[in-house]
Amino acid sequence: MVTSLPTEGALLLADETGGIKKGTKSVEVARQYTGVVGNVENAQVSVHLPEGSRLGRVIIDRELYAGQH
Fold first, then answer.
1. What is the DSSP code string of the chain?
2. Where is the Transposase IS701-like DDE domain (predicted)?
């Protein structure tokens, strides 16, 4: 759990990203809603937690969303 950020004025920015997947080799691919196409498709969804400030940004954590199979 992040309790403080090292850069003054920094923000945590939650970013959910969905990528359409047509093959069968990627992990956590399921029919699920993804904003990339605006409906339910065979996709892989991940959530990134970057820290952003005037100095730039860095990813603190990321996780694949485990859709219902």
1. -----SSTT-EE--EEEEEE--SS-STT-EEEEETTTTEEEEEEEEEEEEEEETTEEEEEEEEE-----
2. 4-50
**Number of domains within the chain:** 1
- Owner of token pair 């400030």: 53
Q: Which residues pair with 32 in a beta bridge?
A: 41
> pLDDT by residue (tens digit) across 8-35?
777 777 877 778 888 777 777 888 888 7
Instruction: Say which amino acid occupies 22.
Output: K
Instruction: Report CA dihedral (43, 48, 69, 41) to the nearest 10 degrees.
Output: -20
Q: Per the confidence metrics, is the pTM higher than 0.85?
A: no
Residue 44 domain boundaries: 12-64
- Does 2 reside within a domain? no
